[in-house]
Amino acid sequence: MPNAIVINVIEVTEGREDAALTAWEAFAEYFRRQPGYVSTKLHRAVGADARFRFINVAEWESADDFLSALKSPGLADVSPGAPEQVNFFTSIYEVIRS
Amino acid sequence: MPNAIVINVIEVTEGREDAALTAWEAFAEYFRRQPGYVSTKLHRAVGADARFRFINVAEWESADDFLSALKSPGLADVSPGAPEQVNFFTSIYEVIRS
After folding, report:
1. pLDDT tens readout for residues B11-22
2. Please, which of A26, A65, A78, B51 could form a disulfide with A30 given CB 3.0 to 4.6 Å?
């Protein structure tokens, strides 16, 4: 049972969807090789008018595992970060109602 | 297998968490009685500095089921909408990578 859920809310200017997806792929390829990674699901909005084009929901064994992966120097080698006109809002969550 | 995922990204001004949660409970109570509803998970940010305090991920059998529930007159009876200083950004999503 994963103990930490990491959600990336991804804000994308129109026309920058491919750049956002390419950046996400690079991050995902890196994170899935890190200790404590469990799974990820990238959601894309069906309609064109969604406020947030992509939302990624990842499961980790613990918040510390995710934080260690974030701090690892390997991350900078994989991706230079979010491309222009793409914002990643990333936080650790827990499920409080279901 | 659900065919539509409805995500609410919930932006909350500090101190308005309880009001947001009460509004969410009223919506959830209504939606879970509607045809095509499958499940929901309300996520709360662990850290105080998260850009989005709550993120709800619900599964529906189809987008049409969710849209019908949205249009039903019963919704207005259940909740007057989002309280002040609470914004719900709601869209329909599909999983494109996992």
Report:
1. 999 999 999 999
2. A78
